[in-house]
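To whoever is on call:

I kicked off a structure prediction for a single chain this morning and the downstream step that reads the tokens threw a length-mismatch warning. I double-checked the sequence; it's 318 residues and nothing unusual in it as far as I can see. Pasting both halves so you can look.
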Amino acid sequence: MNRVCIFLTLVFLSFSNTILKAQKPVFKVIPLGVKGGGDESNLSAYLVAPDGDEGFICLDAGTVRAGIQQSINRKVLTGTAEKILQENIRAYCISHPHLDHLAGLIINSPDDTKKNIYGLPFCLNIVADKYFSWKSWANFSDLGETPRLGKYHMVEMTLQKKYPVENTSMTLEAFPLSHSSPYQSTAFLVGHNDAYLLYLGDTGADTIENSTNLFSLWQKIAPLIVAKKLKGIFIEVSFADDQKKEQLFGHLTPQLLMLEMQKLETIAGINSLKNFPVMITHMKPGGDREQQIRKQLTSSNKPGLKLIFAEQAVPVLF
């Protein structure tokens, strides 16, 4: 009898340890900015690192220093804003070259240190041609007008090729998005030890954009959801459901997001998205729009997503 009890106890402890390991977070995310336009101190930028690591990549860079300072004030980050900018941000990944995803990188570039900027060629070429141009700003990159100061190495990514991110233990893959066709944006799949996060820059729904970019992306990541390797998705919802179709300008509403999530669930399997973490980004300020977006997302959450509303300097573990 004692042997049976010991055996059952060992089985229970083994099972408990498996659960604890499964629940242990892999990634730490610190939003430096979360909104879409309007407030220059709180624009799209997300620090991502393996949990327990202080070497971050910055997914988009609309607001950088102000977000770092807010995170220091809330004791989420320690040190000075300059030190964190220079030492802890190891690389930037830019989804598309709109200022609300880029301004923080440009304005802080004189004080920054050497690092890589990752992005698709369409994006990095515009960054070099329009922003790191001596007509508008010094060229701190190694692309575009001469003289090139070379502080930033522009890594022109190829679609669906995995890139190790220098000075980190993470990898990146890029996927195309449509942002008010024919204009483009990018989704980044961040990897670490066979676990992943998916970050989408601005994107319209396939039905509005006359595109299959999101459907192709869902096909790619569905197996990661099934295998429990994808830990979360960051995706924008810029407008409430009353926004007219012709005034979406390549963005999502709660209704459009849920339609896309239903497509993903169809591919990944019934109930595959139940309690799956989805961080909502890029809500555009204006009247009670943000409250409406939250309410509409919550009431239409048929897949049962674990909705997370991004807040500046409020860390999230995945």
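Update from on-call: the warning came from a stale cache, not from the record. Cleared it. Sanity check on the structure: Residues 2-23 form the longest helix (22 residues).
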